[in-house]
Amino acid sequence: MKTINLLIVTFLCIGFLSCSNDDDATPELLAVNSETVSNLHAPQTGGQGQPVSGTFAKFNFATGEATTSNTEWDIAFRGTSIIINGGTSLGTTDEPERTGNGAVYIADGTMSSITEVQTENLLQDSSSSYAIPSGSGNGWYNYAGAPTFLINPIPGKILVIRTHDGKYAKVEILSYYENAPDNPDAFADASRYFTFSYVYQPNDNVTSF
């Protein structure tokens, strides 16, 4: 009987330890995703003193694709304007409503040097302004004016984003011209075609890349 009792106690201890180890195991994290998107077309009508309109080109980091969904989008482009699915609409024609909890800030650095989200810096779109400022030198681009009339991304400006569903991404705008020419010509190269690289953190409550 002593031998049987000892065996029972041994098996119970092994079972308890096994359950404890399962309970203490850290969930395996999903891999961080790095991609480059080419030629996301973001046309607009109007401008030059005329009312601006046109459908925003919306993008979802989780799928890595453009989307026409009214809710499942993170970032959207129209002309030089970039909006986030969080906050409230500025109220321009054809602008989508914000249904998510997205937010953004612009960090100075490189894609490799920005490794942690500074959550206290995150801003949402509002009825008075976009979180990513518009205008030359204010946000992600510079406008050269005459004689080149080029729109060029400002080096070292990284968009750090909280997605519509609370995850994180970082984005570097690489080009505003179709096929991302090394030396764009505003008179020959089609504009409003965004090429950008991004890193997406798919895990909940993880703010590092």
Structural account:
This protein has 209 residues and is mainly β. It has one domain (33-201). It has one helix spanning 2-24; strands at residues 33-41, 45-47, 50-53, 57-60, 65-67, 75-78, 81-84, 103-108, 141-143, 151-153, 157-162, 168-177, 191-201. The strands form four sheets. Strands 1-13-12-11-8 form a five-stranded antiparallel beta sheet, with no helix packed on it. A hairpin with a 2-residue loop joins strand 6 and strand 7. The longest helix has 23 residues, at 2-24. The protein is globular. The termini are far apart.
Question: Which features does this protein show?
Answer:
11% helix; mainly beta; 13 strands; four-stranded antiparallel beta sheet; disordered N terminus; 209 residues; five-stranded antiparallel beta sheet
Structural class: mainly beta
* Spatial strand sequence of the major β-sheet: 1-13-12-11-8
What separation lies between the terminal Cα atoms? Answer: 58 Å
Q: What is the H/E order?
A: HEEEEEEEEEEEEE
Count of helical stretches: 1
TL;DR of this structure?
The protein is mainly beta and 209 residues long. The chain is built from one helix and 13 strands, in the order αβββββββββββββ.
